[in-house]
């Protein structure tokens, strides 16, 4: 709240001071028609066109810009930003819904929303606010931070624009433009009913005063989203045999245990006897078989997590003189996701150091220091162990005097919940804030002998985006200590007596669990005296930690434009030149156990040891560590642009930009050429060609990591993505050609577009990394030893069934070639049904191809890494989900104060190119070979084939909106989204649908009210 208070104080003080100094702000202006309602009009010469610094037309010009106005959005019921972006035909793979299971594509992105033009990735779409850059996080701009009440329109440039804007404008530009010269007061409020949740609320206030020379606008917005649990949708919770990849894990609790005699293993891992009673699934339940106990971890999760968001925005515009104007704006926004649900704890996937084991324990991995054990030791003195043996005398073989928890087969809490949270899920609170302010002087210089209509601008933009994540994970040595009865914050590990005084045991067996709360099951084997109810012990073993990332921008922009004294048949040549100094900063802060400087070794939390190899080694069972960094980079740029009207019917626009990133980033020059030819009064041709680029983000070259739990050969395992200081820039060439038709009330356009990228900045695709190490699709390793050692950790041997962790790195990846068509159609019919007007419109995008070239990792080409992404789901690859067809259309009837609109949203079918899924008893390989070479026709827990989801079905959703203007400047809107309550198409993913494409909400009903003064 201190940040909020300071931001508001500074912004409000600056605006108030400027308003007090400038004349005319108190002189209220009337709205059109002589009423005192709000007015929101700007002179035509102030219209901004995205993609050029020279004024011109939008969709009818050489620049393929789509304009989405606030009025058109209101007629659709003012959909949320995520809904608007998901419906945009030119966008695919939208981050916005809760999806914690894909690193960089929804994991830890609760409350954020991105724009992904052409499916090339949100990092390749430049998002602007009033034509100025905005601070980013995780390589994209979070558009949920924008002040919706103050937005007049959104301009979508579906073309590369590096020649105009510089880095990141590879796929295009999305420019959110705020309202200008608003006069009055506007209040908005709405409630959205969503089955299975408490619904969503939002409200906003917009106030503006316009004088002769000065205008001032202030806005505030608030949004509240309720939890939507996975269990609230039956399609999101499916049996194991329907989708083994739908949130099922062999790293369970109850889990599996290997019987020991001393440190000698006496057989295979055995499932906990209480597995089935707690709702878990036993696969291959045959005598002597390799039986696996699988738990459904997604039953603890949400499809939508609770979010509280607010935005505060102000803009002052004043004419200092007849030729000079000052514009100042400020935005502060925050997103609070207080309780994103997570699995009660994470899988135990890291080895335990010998310093936490009894002296002389055998079977250690001595290639590291300290030596480690590929599992966790349970002594026979553990009360849970003793009770299991007493209740099931034949559970362990004769001679057993202890047990081993194998890596990847257990987690401290799952089916029974986490006792720290009243046997509920774990939570990962996230708080994000953004502040951006700009100050710009602009004016005119009049005419000179060399140029006419000279205009100039000089501006400064500052922005800061901060994201803080609070989470919990298990410490390896503390888990091991607690299994031995030496757990607790006040237990002296070296001198304490197991289970005595301040030293406590942790019970890993099912007899510690009262039941399964999400499934409503009671555990018949529960022994209350053995429950892990000591919250002090659990908190010590499963501590809370934080990390924070901060990005900052500081831009200085200068520009000069005018008309050259050269007259062509089509008119005078117009030009613009300018320069920019842009400083980007990135810093990270890590707290306690995530900080590699504070806890460099796995046993540092136990004994303070800082001497280990490799160093650092994370002390946590899943989460990685980071080293605090503070990075800064300054970019210098100059640009120029010409508008050449060769004839009345033929216009050429040329632009070029040079950017210098200094010694570490190099430099780049990017030209662009656009042209429009008016062949007939009703038909025009337009085209463009140019180069674009994207510099490596600082967070990608920094020594930091991100982590997600992903399905690896049927097992959910931690996958770490690491930064790479040796990254180079990616480059692209794009061109387009199209036609514009205007006949009467019919208006249409068709554009063909083509992008060719090379050296793309991406992380090593998990699917390719797995294929390189296991070309047969599973089994034993069959790849380069150095490659395998740098990417995998194993509990024993080198096999797909013993993987405990996968590490991938940011790289310059393969080439990408993509092309397709955009279609737009609008038509109106006047004087229909009592003098009303029928409006019809449609827009669509067809992706003809999206070809990904061969991947090279460490100088070695990866066989089979090239693929076609168009029309595919592209799971675990460099590409995003990419249906070939995507479109929307509407039929609208407007009459007087009434407006009725039916909107259809279409997404074409696409293919999960992973093919059918065949699972074996252990479900480690997911190959046909695991089932004897032929896919069985009968699905069973022992061995089965899942054919559903190979083809992800097309989706056609309809929304109906009625809007009416009532007396007293009041407007009411009723919207029914997903009118026929269609479920999202099934996809073989954790949540059983594609969260970047589908809609999980079902039918919703929204009531909105707007009051103007």
Automatic annotation (TrEMBL):
Pfam families: Plug, TonB_dep_Rec_b-barrel. One of its GO terms (cellular component) is cell outer membrane. Keywords: Cell outer membrane, Membrane, Receptor, Signal, TonB box, Transmembrane, Transmembrane beta strand, Transport. It is a multi-pass membrane protein. SUPFAM superfamilies: Porins. Residues 421-979 form the TonB-dependent receptor-like beta-barrel domain. The keyword tRNA processing does not apply. Gene3D superfamilies: TonB-dependent receptor, beta-barrel domain (2.40.170.20), TonB-dependent receptor, plug domain (2.170.130.10). Residues 1-28 form the signal peptide. It is found in: Cell outer membrane. The keyword Transport applies. It comes from the Bacteria. PANTHER family: PTHR47234, TONB-DEPENDENT RECEPTOR. This is TonB-dependent receptor. It comes from Novosphingobium flavum.
């Amino acid at each position: 709240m201190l940040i909020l208070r300071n931001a508001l104080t500074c912004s409000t003080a600056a605006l108030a001071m400027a308003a007090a100094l400038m004349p005319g702000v108190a002189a209220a202006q009337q709205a059109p028609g002589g009423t005192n309602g709000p007015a929101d009009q700007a002179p035509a010469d102030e219209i901004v066109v995205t993609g050029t610094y020279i004024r011109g037309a939008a969709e009818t010009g050489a620049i393929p810009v789509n304009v989405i106005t606030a009025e058109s959005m209101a007629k659709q019921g003012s959909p949320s930003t995520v809904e608007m972006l998901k419906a945009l035909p030119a966008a695919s793979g939208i981050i916005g819904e809760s999806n914690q299971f894909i690193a960089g594509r929804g994991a830890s992105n609760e409350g954020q929303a991105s724009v992904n033009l052409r499916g090339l990735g949100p990092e390749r779409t430049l998002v602007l606010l009033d034509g100025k850059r905005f601070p980013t996080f995780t390589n994209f701009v979070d558009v949920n931070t924008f002040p919706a009440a103050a937005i007049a329109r959104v301009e979508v440039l579906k073309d590369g624009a590096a020649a105009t804007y510089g880095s990141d404008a590879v796929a295009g530009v999305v420019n959110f433009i705020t309202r200008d010269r608003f006069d009055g007061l506007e209040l908005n409020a709405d409630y959205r009913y969503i089955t299975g949740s408490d619904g969503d609320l939002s409200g906003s206030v917009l106030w503006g005063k316009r004088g002769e020379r000065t205008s001032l606008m202030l806005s505030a917005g608030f949004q509240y989203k309720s939890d939507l649990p996975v269990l609230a949708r039956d399609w999101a919770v499916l049996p194991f045999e329907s989708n083994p990849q739908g949130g099922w894990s062999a790293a369970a609790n109850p889990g599996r245990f290997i019987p020991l005699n001393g440190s000698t293993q006496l057989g295979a891992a055995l499932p906990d006897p209480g597995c089935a009673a707690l709702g878990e699934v036993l696969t291959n339940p045959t005598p002597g078989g390799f039986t696996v106990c699988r738990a459904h971890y997604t039953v603890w999760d949400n499809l939508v997590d609770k979010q509280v968001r607010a935005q505060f925005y102000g803009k002052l515009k004043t004419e200092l003189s007849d030729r000079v104007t000052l514009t100042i704006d400020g935005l502060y926004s925050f997103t609070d996701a207080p309780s994103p649900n997570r699995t009660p704890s994470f899988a135990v996937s890291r080895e335990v150091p010998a310093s936490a084991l009894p002296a002389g324990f055998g079977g250690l991995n001595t290639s590291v220091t300290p030596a480690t054990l590929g599992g966790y030791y349970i002594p026979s003195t553990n009360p849970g162990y003793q009770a299991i043996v007493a209740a099931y005398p034949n559970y362990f073989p004769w001679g057993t005097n202890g047990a081993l928890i194998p890596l990847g087969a257990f987690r401290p809490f799952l089916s029974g919940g986490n006792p720290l949270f009243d046997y509920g899920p774990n939570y990962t609170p996230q708080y994000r804030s953004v502040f951006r302010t700009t100050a710009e002087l602009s004016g005119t210089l009049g005419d000179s002998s060399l140029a006419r209509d000279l205009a100039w601008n000089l501006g400064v933009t500052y922005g800061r985006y901060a994201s803080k994540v609070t989470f919990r994970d298990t410490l390896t040595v503390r888990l091991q200590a607690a299994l031995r009865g030496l757990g607790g914050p006040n237990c002296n590990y070296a001198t304490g007596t197991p289970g005595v005084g301040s030293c406590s045991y942790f019970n890993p067996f099912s007899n510690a669990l009262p039941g399964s709360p999400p499934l409503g099951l009671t555990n018949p084997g529960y022994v209350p005296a053995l429950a892990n109810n000591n919250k002090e012990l659990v908190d010590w073993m499963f501590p809370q930690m934080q990390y924070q990332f901060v990005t900052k921008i500081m831009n200085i922009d200068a520009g000069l434009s005018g008309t050259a004294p050269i007259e062509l048949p089509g008119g005078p040549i117009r030009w613009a030149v300018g320069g920019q100094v842009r400083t980007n900063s990135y810093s990270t802060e890590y707290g306690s156990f995530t900080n590699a400087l504070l806890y460099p070794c796995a046993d540092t939390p136990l004994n303070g040891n800082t001497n280990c190899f490799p160093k650092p080694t994370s002390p946590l069972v899943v989460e990685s560590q980071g080293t605090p960094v503070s990075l800064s980079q300054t970019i210098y740029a100059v640009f120029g642009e010409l508008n050449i009207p060769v004839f009345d019917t033929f216009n050429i626009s040329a632009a070029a930009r040079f950017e210098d990133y200094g010694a570490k980033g190099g430099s780049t020059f990017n030209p662009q050429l656009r042209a429009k030819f008016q062949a007939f009064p009703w038909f025009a041709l337009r085209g463009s060609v140019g180069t674009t680029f994207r510099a490596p983000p600082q967070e990608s070259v920094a020594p930091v990591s991100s982590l997600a739990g992903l399905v690896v050969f049927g097992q959910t395992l931690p996958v770490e993505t690491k930064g790479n200081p040796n990254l180079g820039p990616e480059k692209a060439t794009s061109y387009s050609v199209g036609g514009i038709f205007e006949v009467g009330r019919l208006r249409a356009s068709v554009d063909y577009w083509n992008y060719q990228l090379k050296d793309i900045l991406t992380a090593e695709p998990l699917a390719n990394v797995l294929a390189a190490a296991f070309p047969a699709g599973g089994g034993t390793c069959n790849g380069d030893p150095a490659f395998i050692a740098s990417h995998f950790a194993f509990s024993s041997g080198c096999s797909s069934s013993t993987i405990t962790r996968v590490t991938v790195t940011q790289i310059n990846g393969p080439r990408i070639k993509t092309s397709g068509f955009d279609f737009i159609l609008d038509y109106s019919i006047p004087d229909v049904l009592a003098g009303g007007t029928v409006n019809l419109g449609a827009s669509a995008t067809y992706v003809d191809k999206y070809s990904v070239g061969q991947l090279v990792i460490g100088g070695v080409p990866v066989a089979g890494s090239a693929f076609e992404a168009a029309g595919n789901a592209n799971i675990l690859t460099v590409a995003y989900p990419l249906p070939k067809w995507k479109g929307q259309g509407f039929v609208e009837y407007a009459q007087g104060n009434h407006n009725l609109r039916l909107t259809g949203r279409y997404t074409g079918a696409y293919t999960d190119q992973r093919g059918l899924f065949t699972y074996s008893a252990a479900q480690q390989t997911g190959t046909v070979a695991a089932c004897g070479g032929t896919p069985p026709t009968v699905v069973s827990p022992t061995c089965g084939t899942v054919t559903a989801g190979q083809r992800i079905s097309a989706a056609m959703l309809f929304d109906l909106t009625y809007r009416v203007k009532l007396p007293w400047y009041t407007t009411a809107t009723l919207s029914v989204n997903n009118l026929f309550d269609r479920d999202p198409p099934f996809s073989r993913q954790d949540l059983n649908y594609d969260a970047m494409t589908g809609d999980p909400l079902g039918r919703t009903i929204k009531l909105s009210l707007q009051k103007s003064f």
